[in-house]
Amino acid sequence: MSEDLREKNKQAAEKQKVASAKNERKEEIKTEIYNANADDLRKKLSNKNAEYIFKLNKYLMEDGFKEDEAKEAIDKLLPEIVDNQIKGIPANQLYGPVTQRAKDIVHPTKKPKVTPFWASWIDTSLLFFALFGVLYGIVALTSKKQDPNNQTGIITLIVLSAMWGALLTWFNNQMKRPKSQRPGWGITIGYLVVGLAFMFVFLAAMTAVPTSINPALNAIGYFIAAVVAYGVRFVFRRTMGIHDRSFM
Prior knowledge:
Elements: H1 2-35, H2 38-43, H3 47-62, H4 67-75, H5 78-86, H6 91-95, H7 98-106, H8 117-142, H9 154-176, H10 185-205, H11 219-240
């Protein structure tokens, strides 16, 4: 029985060795294809793929491509076409109808621009600054007398807006990820709770900051600050090409 087991292990090892050699050879062939000259690759095309390339070149020329531009565009496709040709996948199956492929080349689909975290953070923070500015202005407008412990100072407004901007930007980014890559709701809520706790600690700590460092504006001052912040945000979004909404 032990001899049978050794024989099976030997056969399995041989099969694995053969499979490994085949995979290595496939990789070598693929590397050769992608490093080959375009003219050499054209000679390897099957009749069906050669016809596809001929029609593709024709449609590109009809759509305004010059001869060298059409050749350059097609040359970029040849390695992938030949590689899939070996696997038995023709160009019309790989790319779809030749008219559609020509259209995709002439009018390529632009990938949506990804806004970096820092830009989204500034954008959202400016929005919160404007919102809090209006809120602070209303509070100042309706308050009969100023509370010495009232921490609606300009420093509080700036830092609190930055905190909310960072927290909401992080949350939005998590919600935009595929469901399989999102953190669980428990983790997400945990982060939000920790973020809110930091904000409350910050507000409590600001009671020890003198008004000379954290001066409070009057109602008009806060309203003006809110309008300026929103205007800066508008210009910033236009400059950075941001089209995402700050709130999901």
